[in-house]
Amino acid sequence: MAHYAFLNDENIVVEVIVGRDETEVVDGVSDWEQHYSDVRGLRCVRTSYNNNIRKQYAGIGYFYDQAADEFVSPQPFASWSLDSNNDWQPPIPKPEGDFYWDEESLSWLPL
């Protein structure tokens, strides 16, 4: 069993399905990304539920960074930015302990 993400024209994930494992050959089909792309008319990219490929499991709204060949989660807050590893970072590092990000004050507040 494998998981596949369908992308729109902006490389945003619009659907994730469970499909054939990439090692399966059925009726001569062995390239399942291409097969699902042809069937749905959308680009299809395999994703890994166990995060074994493409950094993390794709979800609806995730961006597929083709150059890095990985999925990037949606921006959690307007003030956060991507680092060189495609991870979202707050403008201020999170302190030790139990805190949550408050976008209005642009600060970490205790739980």
Which terms summarize this structure?
three-stranded antiparallel beta sheet, mainly beta, two-stranded antiparallel ribbon, single chain, 9 strands, 111 residues
What do you see in this structure?
This protein is mainly beta. The chain has two domains: 1-74, no CATH class; 75-111, no CATH class. The protein contains one helix and nine strands, in the order E-E-H-E-E-E-E-E-E-E. It has one helix spanning 32-40; strands spanning 2-7, 13-19, 43-47, 63-65, 70-72, 81-82, 88-89, 99-102, 107-110. The strands form four sheets. The chain has a three-stranded antiparallel beta sheet, covered by helices on one side. Strands 4-5 form a two-stranded antiparallel sheet. It has a two-stranded antiparallel sheet with strand order 6-7. The longest helix is centred in the first third of the chain and has 9 residues, at 32-40. It is elongated, with a radius of gyration of 18 Å.
Write the SSE topology:
Layout: E1 2-7, E2 13-19, H1 32-40, E3 43-47, E4 63-65, E5 70-72, E6 81-82, E7 88-89, E8 99-102, E9 107-110
Antiparallel strand pairs: 1-2, 1-3, 4-5, 6-7, 8-9
Question: Helical amount among residues, as a percent range?
Answer: under 10%
Mean pLDDT across all residues, rounded? Answer: 96
User: What is the molecular shape?
Assistant: elongated
Largest sheet: 3 strands, antiparallel
User: H/E series, N to C?
Assistant: EEHEEEEEEE
- Integer count of domains: 2
Uncertain segments: none
Strand content: 25-35%
CA-atom Rg in angstroms: 18 Å
> Biggest sheet, strands in spatial order?
2-1-3
Q: How many DSSP-defined strands?
A: 9
| Alpha-beta classification | mainly beta
End-to-end CA span: 40 Å
In DSSP terms, counting alpha (H) and pi (I) runs of 4 or more, how many helices? 1
